[in-house]
Amino acid sequence: MPNHTTIDKKKIREAVRLLLEGIGEDPDRDGLRDTPDRVARMYEEIFGQGEEDPHVALSKKFDEHHHEVVLVKGITFFSMCEHHLMPFFGMAHIAYIPNGHIVGISKLARVVESFARRPQVQERMTSQIADIINQELKADGVAVVCEAVHTCMTMRGVKQPSASVITSAMRGAFEKNVTSRTEIMALIYGKSTA
Ligand code: ZN
Questions:
Q1: How close is the Cα of 81 to the center of ligand 1, in Å?
Q2: How far is the CA of 9 from the centre of ligand 1 (A)?
Q3: Predicted confidence band of residue 173 (pLDDT cuts 50, 70, 90)
Q4: How many CA atoms lie within 13 A of 193 on its CB side?
Q5: Please, what is the end-to-end C-alpha distance for the chain in angstroms?
Q6: pTM for this structure?
Q7: CB of 61 within 8 A of CB of 101?
């Protein structure tokens, strides 16, 4: 459940000023003078309430007697690692097996955006996306796979610029049935199962 609170830009400005002092900078020098305010406005954009609540987005359902897999591949997302406040970004792939209802494909992108707009860990984000689709659509199965590059891992720490992290969350048929799971992974990664 999104618990977006109001963004307090004054607090962010104060914190960024302190942070600059903490790393030995003069926050009043020319290039940095407007940085606290710029960062505050940027955080409002990154962490602020998205255009649409994910529950509302998924509530606009269409009755459709389609019982085969619907897969949306390559939804780009940008999020912020809650351990380092560094960006992680990549793609989310979402599949579901409808049980009488489908949703607009753009709504699935909204759901991803909504869960990315907060301090996150990729594992939890992946589960949250799967759970809300499962709850709202009462689908026969939901599969969510996210792959991302974590800048806290590429530019600091272990410095592994080509490492990516893949997480998956399987619900319903995809969780219970190995064949369904294998098929959906093959569809996501482009291998033919024929
Ligand atoms: Zn991190």
A1: 5
A2: 24
A3: very high
A4: 11
A5: 39
A6: 0.90
A7: yes
Element (H, E) at 78: strand 70-81
Phi and psi angles of residue 88, each rounded to the nearest 5 degrees, phi first: -130, 145
| Rounded Cα–Cα distance for residues 107 and 123 (Å) | 21
Q: Ligand 1: distance of its center to the CA of 44 in Å?
A: 20
Q: Residue 90: how many CB atoms within 10 A of its CB? A: 19
Q: How far is the CA of 173 from the centre of ligand 1 (A)?
A: 32
Dmax (CA) of the chain: 64
Boundaries of every domain in the chain: 9-46, 59-189
CATH architecture of 9-46: Orthogonal Bundle (1.10)
Q: What 3-state DSSP class applies to 63? A: strand
Catalytically active residues, by annotation: 81-84, 122, 150, 152
Mean pLDDT estimate for the chain:
92
Fold of 59-189: GTP Cyclohydrolase I, domain 2 (3.30.1130)
Q: Ligand 1 centre from 122 Cα, in Å? A: 10
pLDDT in tens, 100-137: 899 998 999 999 999 999 999 999 999 999 999 999 99
